[in-house]
Amino acid sequence: MTAPHVGIWMYENGGGKAIEQKLVHALAERGIQTSTGLNLRDARAQGGSIICNGIAMEKLDTFLSYNAGQQTQYQLYLYQTLSETIPTLNNYNAFSIAEDKFRTSHLLSSQGIVTPDYRLCHKNDMDGLKSAIRDFGGKLVYKPTDGWGGVGIVKIDSEQALDMLMPFLSRTDLRYFYVERFINYDNTDYRIDIVDGKCVGCYGRKAPKDDWKTNITSGGSVFVREPNDEVVDIAVKATETLGLEIAGVDLIYDREREEYVVLEVNTIPAFATPEQEALGINFNHSKISAMVELIDKTVQRKLSLQSAKVA
């Protein structure tokens, strides 16, 4: 009997290569073969097959796509196509929703999960944007719906500031604007990592003194932070609502409304770097174990379905 075969595309910086090796080793102990480095940028599709580095991707039993910083429209197009044939982690439908800030907030809000008050406005709807800044207490945050790492996020704290920004925004090719109420918080957040419906790790991030964004790429720093039951429950519910198998949920505490708010849900949450592990952020082992269990379960489910079809 041929061993199950899993494809992996893992980020390599920040200790990612070592994480990949641990995943490969743990899967091999379960009798699962792996092919790594399957960057869909290098793939070609023809004749009903997607070939990447000599691997027929549709013949894989599962594909783990885990590289946030190098996704192009070409790769995402093939990722979507592949997800229609074999199991992918994350599944593409949930991935595509979670990658869009508006769609994420809209779905979570509809299910009673607290997110920042938001508004999606047509590009020419200046009245809608101005009413949003009034409705949101005089401060709002403009966000690209598909950005990550804090890139392109702008705080707008008056109608005059909005008027100054509009000429720039009107020259872009954006079709709509997504804005959120600016939340009064202590400039720290929780990052809760969820795998297969369970919390596998948590740490905190803190914005630099001269900024309000906690993103590491915006100058934020990490610190050891133990989660409470409430933030874990919210993170699990948010992940399940979006349909994700793997997620990193960012939460902040709204000091005015005295409640936790889901700020963002990340589809490819990074493992702790060696430097972060030295600070005492030690969840990599539990996260690797949970991901191996998830991959194995996904593979076995696919094989069971195949066997049922043959029978």
What is the residue-mean pLDDT, rounded to a whole number?
A: 92
The side-by-side strand order for the widest beta sheet comes to 14-13-12-15-16
Number of helices: 9
> How many E-type strands?
16
| Rg (CA only) | 21 Å
CATH level-two architecture of the largest domain: 3-Layer(aba) Sandwich
Tell me the number of structural domains.
3
Show unreliable segments.
none
The span between the termini is 17 Å
Strand content: 25-35%
In the CATH scheme, the class of the largest domain would be Alpha Beta
Major beta sheet, specifics? 5 strands, antiparallel
Q: What structural class do you assign from the helix and strand content?
A: alpha+beta
Percent helix range:
25-40%
Q: What is the H/E string?
A: EHEEEEEHEHHEHEEHEEEEHEEHH
Structure characterization notes:
There is one protein chain. Helices cover about 35% and strands about 25% of the residues. The chain has 9 helices and 16 strands. It has helices at about 15-30, 75-85, 90-100, 100-110, 125-135, 160-170, 230-240, 275-280, 285-310, and strands at about 5-10, 35, 45, 50, 55, 60-65, 90, 120, 140-145, 155, 175-180, 190-195, 200-205, 220-225, 245-255, 260-265. The strands form 4 sheets. A 5-stranded antiparallel sheet has the order 14-13-12-15-16. Strands 2-1-6-7 form a 4-stranded parallel sheet. Strands 8-11-9-10 form a 4-stranded antiparallel sheet, sandwiched between helices. The two termini are about 15 Å apart. The model has no long low-confidence stretch (mean pLDDT about 90).
